[in-house]
Every structure is written in structure tokens, then in C-alpha cells.
Design a protein that fits this description.
It contains 14 helices and 4 strands. It is mostly helical and 320 residues long. It has one domain: ABC transporter involved in vitamin B12 uptake, BtuC (Orthogonal Bundle). Strand 2 and strand 3 form a beta hairpin. The N and C termini lie far apart (40 Å). The radius of gyration is 19 Å and the shape is globular. The mean pLDDT is 89. Pfam families: BPD_transp_2.
Length: 320
């Protein structure tokens, strides 16, 4: 029983322990402003990682999320900077992310390109388009409050970014755990051929999951641009490894060996707690990268210990 509890919740308990350590060692850590800052930073990472999780649920991996988010941010920023109605700019950013996700889905299911390769290709295209549109120069300005309020505003005293994270996280959890469509997504990832023989349109499920991953990247982009009042190529790239780490770390808790929304969100929060705590303690910046790499390795090892295989080896079906 104890072993089962540790396998299911051990990583989560370690995250709680980390939170407690920083709470004791830094007098600033538990202040309301700092906790709100951590949660707002978690919003960007969490929404991006949710998209990555949805793709991985169907045994596909989306390595384009960060570059797609950067492209969507550039498109959104260019339109707002040029005086376009903010709601049109927001719709354009979401559309760019969704279309890139759909392109990934078509490449994987119609052209039969493995998702590792297809999403790398889309990432390269998105990166090139970002630099083509900006010529390497960021869009910066005093943008309308109707746009910046999307990320900077509050509702009932709670920052909008936290509401966005809670809403998207809850919707994704409901989709995967409590809908027939979610059951089909999970079945596709767990046993592609068996699901197909059972009548599930597995290729459609993979296209949907990759499209949703792109949509999450687009929303992350819009919120980033709104929060920073700027848009630049590669602006979302810093979130890429953290998104992967959040998903992998999330697979070592709650549902060991499986991508799951609660695990991803808790892991994203834990990673932001770690980064924030290290800064408050005065640690050198490079320690975040060192610890991040260690977390990725350990999270894969923990999942492999419980399932017999590393999560990517188990979930990804590279051969078509």
C-alpha cells in the first residue's frame, strides 16, 4: 500500500516539500504578491503544456508548440501594433496556432510523417515566418487596454491569467476524463490498432489532438503578447523545455506512466516554484537549467520504473 501511494503521489509530495522549503528559507516567498506572480507565470507554461499533453495522450509528440506560439504572438502583435481591432488580432493569433496544429495533424495522419519529424518541420517553418514578418525586430508599444487587460486584468480580485489557466485546465480535464471523445483520444494513444478495429477513427483523433495543441499554443501566444505589450520571434522558446519537463514530471504522479492534465498542471506549478525560489535565494541563473535537465531525466526514470518503459518509448508509435 505504501509503495502504491508513493508511486502515485510521491512526486507530488516532493513538490509540496519543495514549496515548504522555500517558504521556510525565504521570508518573501509566501507573500501574496509572490504567490500571485508564481501562478501567473504558471499560466503561460501550463496552457502550453496542456496542449503538449493532449497530443501525447494520442501517442503523438508536438515539438512545434513554442515556435508556433512565437509565430502566433508575432501575428497578434503586428495587428495590434498596426491599429487593428484587438479582437481581430486575438482571433488571428488563435487561428494561426490552430492552423499550425491542424497542419501537424495532416502531416502525421495523411502524409504519414512521424510526429517527431512533422512537428520539427512545422516548427522550422513557423520560426522562419516569425523572422520574415518582423525582420528580427520586436513589436513594442502602448497597446489598447482592451488587449492588455486580457492578461493583466483581474476578475473578482483574481488575476485573469489564473482564471485562464483554471478554465483551460478544467476544460481539458473534462474532455479527457469525462467525455466519449476523450475516451477515444485515450484509446487511440493506448492501443491504436485495437481502437481502430473497435470503430474509433484514430486518425481523426490524432488530428484533433494536434490541432488542440496548436490552439493552446495560440492562446499562450495571445496571453504572452497581452502581458508583455510586445511580440518578438522566439519569445515563447524559453517555455519549450519547461513544457516538456512539466508533461514528463506530470507523468510520474497521479497516473504514473500516462500523460494526465492534473499531473501536468501540478508539475508546471512546481517548476515555477523552483525557479522563483532559486531566484529569491540568490542562486545563479544557470542552476535553473541544470536542475531542469535533472528533473527531465529523473521524471522519465521514475515513470520507467513503474511501467517498465520510458514514457515516450511507450506512448510514441514512430512506425506507421
Amino acid at each position: 500500500m505504501t509503495r502504491r501511494i508513493l508511486a502515485r503521489y510521491g512526486t507530488a509530495l516532493a513538490g509540496v516539500g519543495l514549496f515548504a522549503i522555500f517558504a521556510v528559507t525565504s521570508p518573501v516567498f509566501l507573500t501574496p504578491d509572490n504567490i500571485a506572480l508564481i501562478l501567473k507565470e504558471t499560466a503561460f507554461l501550463g496552457i502550453l503544456a496542456i496542449g503538449f499533453t493532449l497530443a501525447l495522450v494520442t501517442a503523438e509528440i508536438d515539438l512545434s508548440v513554442a515556435e508556433v506560439a512565437s509565430l502566433a504572438a508575432v501575428v497578434t502583435g503586428a495587428l495590434v501594433h498596426g491599429g487593428t481591432d484587438p479582437w481581430i488580432a486575438i482571433a488571428a493569433g488563435l487561428a494561426v496556432g490552430t492552423l499550425c496544429g491542424a497542419a501537424n495533424g495532416v502531416a502525421v495522419t495523411v502524409l504519414n510523417v512521424p510526429s517527431l519529424i512533422a512537428t520539427l518541420g512545422v516548427a522550422a517553418i513557423a520560426k522562419g515566418l516569425s523572422f520574415m514578418l518582423t525582420q528580427g525586430v520586436a513589436f513594442v508599444g502602448r497597446w489598447p487596454a482592451s488587449f492588455t487587460g486580457l492578461a493583466r486584468g483581474t476578475l473578482l480580485g483574481v488575476p485573469n491569467l489564473i482564471w485562464w489557466l483554471a478554465g483551460i485546465g478544467f476544460a481539458a480535464w473534462l474532455l479527457v476524463k469525462w467525455t466519449r471523445l476523450g475516451a477515444h483520444l485515450v484509446a487511440t494513444g493506448e492501443a491504436d490498432e485495437a481502437a481502430r478495429l473497435a470503430g474509433i477513427r484514430t486518425r481523426s483523433m490524432k488530428r484533433l489532438a494536434l490541432t488542440l495543441a496548436g490552439a493552446c499554443a495560440g492562446l499562450t501566444a495571445v496571453l504572452l503578447a497581452s502581458s508583455l505589450s510586445s511580440a518578438a520571434p522566439a519569445m515563447a522558446n524559453d517555455h519549450f523545455l519547461y513544457a516538456i519537463a512539466a508533461v514528463l514530471l506530470g507523468m510520474s504522479m497521479f497516473e504514473p506512466g500516462r500523460p494526465n492534465i492534473p499531473g501536468t498542471l501540478f508539475a508546471a506549478f512546481t517548476l515555477k516554484v523552483l525557479g522563483n525560489g532559486l531566484v529569491l535565494l540568490g542562486a545563479e541563473y544557470y542552476w535553473q537549467d541544470i536542475i531542469l535537465g535533472t528533473i527531465i531525466l529523473l521524471s522519465v526514470a521514475l515513470s520507467a520504473t513503474g511501467t517498465g518503459k520510458a514514457p515516450f518509448v511507450k506512448k510514441l508509435n514512430v512506425r506507421r
